[in-house]
Amino acid sequence: MNHIAGAEEQIVTERLRRKLNEVNSSAQKQLSGVQDHINFTLQQAYFKCAYSCFDRSRTHDEISNCVEHCSVPVLQAQNLVEGEMAKFQERLQRALMVCQDRYESAKLQPGQSNAMNDLESCVNQSIDDNVKTLPSLAERLKTTLGMNDST
After folding, report:
1. What DSSP character marks residue 149?
2. Among 12, 27, 66, 87, which is most buried by a count of CB atoms within 10 Å?
3. pLDDT at 151 exceeding the cut of 70
4. How does the average pLDDT of the chain come out, rounded?
5. Closest by alpha carbon to 42, among 54, 29, 33, 52?
């Protein structure tokens, strides 16, 4: 019986791993426009701005300050996206910890043969609930970054 439980646990663990990979894929898909905006639009503006800073009439400090000023929009955008993604990951992690706690409690109770299935169901529901928030997260980022709807 112990061998069967171990095999079942491995199967469920693999399913959960695949489900977590779906989260990563979904997040990348939802945020690809935002990343493109940062990596291309904002970076291009940064390089154009920084290029204009290099003028022989300026001192080294003036050039450095100018280039630093040019980098502000890119850095702010990157920090915004990183902060929002960190919050998303924290929410998901808390939800998954609740599932883990429920699973651990269920294992301690006699006659709980569904503990592994309950864990899988809880994880799936938590992931699905969190993934549903990604479109609004992406829209919020786009609005904050002043992106057009076509981006």
Report:
1. T
2. 27
3. no
4. 90
5. 33
Task: Write down the architecture of domain 2-37+74-144 according to CATH.
Answer: Up-down Bundle (1.20)
Per-residue buried b or exposed e for 113-139, using 16+ beta carbons within 10 Å of the residue's own CB: eebbeebbebbeebbeebbeebeebbe
Nearest partner of 96 among 115, 77, 120, judged by Cα: 120
Q: What confidence tens digit (pLDDT) does each residue in 36-61 have? A: 999 999 999 999 999 999 999 999 99
- Which parts of 37-111 fold into alpha helices (H)? 43-53, 60-108
Residue 71 tokens, joined: 């980098």
Residue whose token pair is 């549903």: 132
- Long-range contacts, 118-126 (Cβ 8 Å, 24+): 119/12, 120/12, 120/15, 120/16, 122/98, 123/16, 123/19, 123/96, 123/99, 124/19, 126/92, 126/95, 126/96, 126/98, 126/99
Are 79 and 86 contacting, i.e. CB atoms less than 8 angstroms apart? no
Kindly report, residue by residue over 115-142, the tens digit of the pLDDT.
Answer: 888 888 999 999 999 999 999 999 999 9
pTM of the prediction? Answer: 0.81
Quick check: 19 pLDDT over 70? yes
What lies within 8 Å, CB to CB, of 52 at 6+ separation is: 66
